[in-house]
Every structure is written in structure tokens, then in C-alpha cells.
Amino acid sequence: MKLDKDQIRMVIALFLVAAIAAILLGLTDIATREPIAAAQKAALHQALRQVLPQHANDPQNDRITMGPADDKVDIYPARDSDGHTVGLAWEVVAPDGYSGSIHILVGVRPDERIYAIRVTEHHETPGLGDGIVKNHNWVSSFMNQSLNSKIWKVKKDGGDFDQFTGATISPRAVVKAVKSALLFFNSHKQAILGRLAVQKGVSPDQHPENNKAGTQ
Amino acid sequence: MKKSDILADGFWHNNTIFTQLLGMCPLLGVTTSAENGFWMGAATVLVLIGSNLVVSLVRNVIPKNVRIPSYITIIAAFVTIVGMAMDAWMHEMYLILGLFIPLIVVNCAILGRAEAFASKNSVADAVTDALAVGLGFTFALVLLGGVRELLGQGALFGFSVFGDSYPDVLMFILPPGAFIALGFILAGINLINRRLASRAASMHAKQQTAMIPATQEAT
Asked: Touching check for B68 and chain A: CB below 8 Å?
């Protein structure tokens, strides 16, 4: 089959448009890759500072990865200047938000009490479900709670956490996800703290204080 | 075509939202606040300028049969570039607008300008048109976003206007409020246009009567 002149011209035109577009996109990717990574890191840094107690280390640098390969969790530890682990934070995802999943950064103390939580990504209705971000009383009602200190449900379901007027689904999803974070920590506590101690160059049964010199 | 005509046409007489009712998806989707509307508009302006510029440059090179796929590729490239740039340098706003940035590709207003204007006019005219249409679109987004934010949260651009005691009328933040507010804005715009038209008509009539006094009784 022979292509006539017009057809060849069409193919060449489309090819050139696509090729130039591809080159431009490649260049933009090169130019923006680092700023995007930096922006994400800065946003996470900002969020981590809010859910972790005062710390002297860089939690993002010291993060450890737990769990099976298909369900990895990055855990960000907070250490004081002596190297003690004073808190841990990781992200949980509530898949059952009102519109899409809600990402929550949960910060806990080593004694399994919550230090603070913060929603990092959500698509809940402004003015209704977004109280999970904006309602400070509600957000701080999680502080210092542990698995046994509260019934981990919204009041409508017979639990201890408020829902909002007109919005039950978003708070319910968040409460459920935070509870799952506490359960996760409860069942993996030894492994996680052990890993953190090893990372610091101490074996888990040694007291961190004896090993100040080993701090990197 | 005079530049001032292009500007007036794109911004007002042929406003994407108020007159053509195109681009409703981003309009209704992101205008929960004036700020969201503004940045969505700004992203659209950048894409429009880029696509109109390039489409006008290649208007005599691209064969007629493949012009639509070519325009779509050009528009998609600009949208992706703007999206990546926003992700890099305006990370927080990118997270808010997120989903709607890629959707600029299918904003029929942009393909419409490429097809109806840029592919037939000089580069300078095409860029002027992009600027006018883009600013008109942004104006509409900010107006609707402002009205919804004001009624729904008692604030404007994030600053409280009515004070804390204002009972937030949530409906205006929710999708139905977008349609209702848009309806009232369209009615208002039509009212303004009708006033302008009748004033222009009466001025025209006066001029005529001044010129031909004999027909005064007839009018």
C-alpha cells in the first residue's frame, strides 16, 4: 500500500507535535523533580513537627520501614538530645472518607498514648467533613488517649468521640483509622522499638543511655 | 481585528462562563472559595496563552485533518507543565486543586479558542485573545468563589468578613449552592447587559432624532 502525500504530511505533523511535546515534558520533569521532592519533604517536615514531641533529630532521616513488602509503613522516630525515643509517627489511610481516602499522620509516645494527630490529605466537604482538620477541639480530643482510655467510636455509634453536625462519616473514618494505628503499634511495639534501637547501634535490651557515644 | 475589540469580546461579550456557559466542571468544582477560584483561573490563563500562542504559530503547518489531535496534544502538554510547576513551587495549592488541574485539558473553552480563534489569527491577536478569555474566566471563578465563600463561611479570601457569629450557610459550599449562586450571578449579568443594551439603544435613538427632527413623533 502506498501512502499519498497528504497522509505522509499528516503523519509527520502529528509525529512532530508529539515529539516536541514529549521533549518539553521531559525537560519540565527534570526541572521540577527536585523542587517537588523538596516541597513534599517540607510539607511532611511541617506535619511531623506537629505530631511529635520536641525532638533533636531529623525524623525523616531516621525513618524505618516496617511490614510486608506490599504494605510498607514508614515510621518516623523522634529522639531527644540524649537519643531516647520520645515519640513515633506514621501515616495511616482511612479509605472510607466521605469523598475518597483520608491520610492521617499519627504521632504516639512509646507508652502507646497518642501525642497528636494531623490530617495530611483529604477531600472532605469544606465546612462539614473538613472539621477533621479545622475543628481544633476535636483534633486535640485525641491527645493522650490510648486504646483503653476511650471507646474508639463516634458518639453516634456508642463511642467517646464527637461527630460534627451534618458530618458523621469523616470523623468515623478518622477515629477508625487512628484506632487501627494504635492496634498496629500495640502488636508491633517490640519489633519497632527494637529496630529503632538497632538503628542507633544499640541492641534492644541495652539501655540507650549507656550508648551515647554510639549516637550518629 | 482591533485589539480592544478582542479584549472586550473575550472578557465580557463572549465570556466563557457568563455567555458561552463553557468550562462548567472546573467552575462548579473548585469555587468553594475565592482563592481556589483565583488560582484555578491563573492556571487556566497560563495554559490558554501557551496553547493559543503555539496553535497560532503552527496554524499554517498542521494539515486540517489532524488539527484536533494536534491541538489536544499541545494543550495537554501545557497543562502537564503548569501542573508540575505548581506541584513544585505552590505545593499547598496544588494539593487543594489537585484533581482539577489535569482536567483543564478537557476544558472545552481552551480547545474552543484554539479551534475558533488561534488557528485563524495572527500570533499577537491569538495571545491577546487568550489573555482576555483567560482573565474573563478567572473573573467568573473568583466572583462565584467569592459569593460562595462569603455566604457559606462569612469570609473572603480566607479573611473573616461577617465575624464569628455568622451562621455558615453550608449549602453554598456544597454543590447545590454552586448552581444556585451561578444562577443568580447569570441573572445579574443578564440584567447588566440588558441595561447596557437599552442605554446604547436610547443613545442611538437620540442621535437619530437629533439628526431627523421630523421623525420625532414616529418614535
From this structure: no
Q: Identify whether B215 is part of a domain.
A: no
Q: pTM score, two decimals? A: 0.77
Residue A65: which region, alpha, beta or left (left: phi > 0; alpha: psi -120 to 50)?
Answer: beta
Q: How far is A9 from chain B (nearest CA, A)?
A: 7
Determine whether the interchain pair B77/A13 forms a contact, defined as Cβ–Cβ distance below 8 Å: no
In a domain, B207, yes or no: no
- The answer to whether A3 faces chain B, any CB pair under 8 Å, is no
Residues in chain B: 219
Q: CB–CB of A29 and B84 under 8 A?
A: yes
> Residue A56 falls within a domain, yes or no?
yes
B182 located within any domain: yes
Which residues of B fall within a CB distance of 8 Å from A24? Answer: 77, 81
Shortest Cα–Cα distance, A109 to chain B (Å): 29
Q: What residues of chain A lie within 8 A of the CB of B77, using their CB?
A: 21, 24-25
Rounded Cα distance between B46 and B110, Å, is 11
ipTM of the complex, rounded to two decimals: 0.73
At residue B211, the pLDDT reads: 67
Q: Evaluate whether A75 touches A65 at the Cβ level (below 8 Å).
A: yes
Amino acid in the structure at residue B34: A
Residue range(s) defining the domain that contains residue A67 = 52-214
What 3-state class would DSSP assign to A216? Answer: coil
Across the range B38-47, mean pLDDT stands at 92
Residue that is written with C-alpha cell 517536615 in the block: A45
| Tally of structural domains, chain B | 1
| Chain A environment of B87 (Cβ under 8 Å) | 32, 36, 39
Q: Is residue A35 part of a domain?
A: no
Number of domains in chain A: 1
Q: Is residue B216 part of a domain?
A: no
Burial of B63 (0-12, 13-18, 19+ CB in 10 A): middle
pLDDT computed for residue A213 by the predictor: 43
Contact A36 B87 (CB under 8 A): yes
Overall average pLDDT of the A50-65 stretch: 86
Q: Which domain holds residue B48?
A: 3-201
Q: Per the domain annotation, does A44 fall within a domain?
A: no
